[in-house]
Amino acid sequence: MKPAQIFHQYIWIINTLRAYHKLTFEELNQKWIDDGVTDGNPLQRSSFNRHRDAILNMFGIIIDCNLITYEYYISNKEVLSDDSIERWLFSTLAVHGVLADSAAVKERLVLENAPAGEQYLDIIIRAIRTNYRLHIGYKKFEAEGYEKVVCPYALKLFHQRWYLLALNDEEQMRIYALDRMTMTELTDETFEMPFDFSAQAYFSEYFGVLTNDMPLDHVIIRAHKWMPNYLRTLPLHHSQREHESTPDYTDFSFDIRPTSDFLGELLRHSDGIEVLQPLELREKMRQMIAETLKRYY
């Protein structure tokens, strides 16, 4: 069986248990047949058990069985609501499965451009997995190119671009955009990865990929018009909390380091968002908007 077909079966099992919450094997098998997952052939219990193990290993999703009712269910649904690699992989494969079944209507599907720099992903992931240093060529926009040897720590996808977080020879953590790399190759030098390093924790106080030592702030914004529902369905940051709400606006707070990535995201939503606190940040936003307005006079 082709890998794509197997992945399709994994996704079907996950989505079916998410939709119906709890199903006996007999109920699950009937839905499997009704949906024609394997051209009407039944789901074998041995195959289902293998799929459960594979789903756990690949996505971190635990499919448990209630020993009283003999119903199967996902016992850790929260794994599908965070920003982990398992959640991203599940989403990507789910979309892939839908698109594979939609070839006949491909002219009516409008997609965003694929993430830039993907040609370097394989070698970078190999370096991350084996703790080998990377020799990269890099050229910033409107700057001279250079070559550097770095210790690859993590990859992050942001706004359709891949970024490498790496430690350079000056013991500084730096971000390198893959679409600005001119070459990359493994060296024969290894490095020691700190045992307590967590990429999730490293970026947890930031929005986007830009990081610096600016202090953590308690930011309060007021969302107008369509923005409250937009932010409820797609939070900007894991620290987002909803506060006062009226028919005209809703206030949200964030505990975040307000880098230019975060401010740019707020500006992207135009008059739908207003910064209330801290006052220094409100003034900075006002100045940025004023500078932008000058270009239209």
Description:
A hairpin with a 5-residue loop joins strand 6 and strand 7. The radius of gyration is 23 Å and the shape is globular. 36% of the residues lie in helices and 26% in strands. The protein contains nine helices and twelve strands. The strands form three sheets. The chain has a five-stranded antiparallel beta sheet with strand order 7-6-5-4-8, with helices on one face. It is an alpha+beta fold. 18% of the residues are buried.
Estimate percent helicity: 25-40%
The structure class reads alpha+beta
H/E element sequence: HEHHEEHHEEEEEHEHEEHEH
Measured distance between first and last alpha carbons: 63 Å
Low-confidence stretches: none
Q: Helical region count?
A: 9
List the helices and strands and how they pair.
Layout: H1 3-20, E1 23-24, H2 25-34, H3 45-59, E2 63-65, E3 71-74, H4 85-100, H5 121-130, E4 132-138, E5 146-158, E6 161-167, E7 173-177, E8 181-190, H6 199-203, E9 217-224, H7 227-233, E10 241-245, E11 249-256, H8 260-268, E12 273-277, H9 279-294
Antiparallel strand pairs: 1-3, 2-3, 4-5, 4-8, 5-6, 6-7, 9-11, 9-12, 10-11
